[in-house]
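Researcher: Please generate the 3D structure of the following complex. Treat every line as part of one assembly.
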Amino acid sequence: MRHVLLAAALLAAASVPALADGAAVFDANCAFCHQAGGVGVPGQFPRLAGRAGAMAAKPAGKAFLPKVVLNGISGRIMVDGEQILGIMPALDTLSDEDIAAVLTYITGLDHQPVKYTAAEIKAARAQPKVAPTDMAAQHAALAAKKIVP
Ligand code: HEC
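Model: Done. Output below.
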C-alpha cells in the first residue's frame, strides 16, 4: 500500500511542469553584468535592486522590462542621476518562462515583487523588434515621465 501511494505521489510530481527559478536564471544570465542581487556597478551597469520593482509598479514600466530583455538596450541612459553609456545584448534566446521568472525575481529585489507570466512575455515577443538604441530613447522618455526612477 505504501508503495502504491509513493508511486502515485511521484506520478503527480512528474506531471507538474517545472517552475523556472528566477534567481537561477538571473545568476546564469544577468549577474555577470548587473552583479549578484542586482546591485549593479555605478556608472557601468544599472542597479536593478529597487529600480526594477519601482518601474514595474506602473503599467508602462511593467511593459517596458520584457522589452529590455527581448531587444537589449544601448545608448546613454540616466541611472541614479548618473549617465551610463553601455550595451546590453538582447537575451531573447531565454524561454518565456525563464524571462517571466527572472523579471519577477528582479522586481522583488529591495521591493514588493511584481508577478510576470509566460503569457505576458509571449505577447511581448510577438511585438515588432525594437533596436537597442531606440530602447535607450524609450528609457529616456519613461524617465521624463518618472516611470523609470
Ligand atoms: C553584458 C552585460 C549585461 C547583461 C548580461 C545583462 N545586462 Fe541588463 N543592462 C546592461 C547595461 C550596460 C544596461 C544599460 C544600457 C545602456 O546604457 O543603454 C542594462 C540595462 C538593463 C535594464 C534597465 C535598467 C535601469 O535601471 O534603467 C534592465 C531592467 C536590465 N538591464 C535587465 C537585465 C536582465 C533581467 C538581464 C538578464 C536576463 C540582463 N539585464 C543582462 C548590461 C547587461
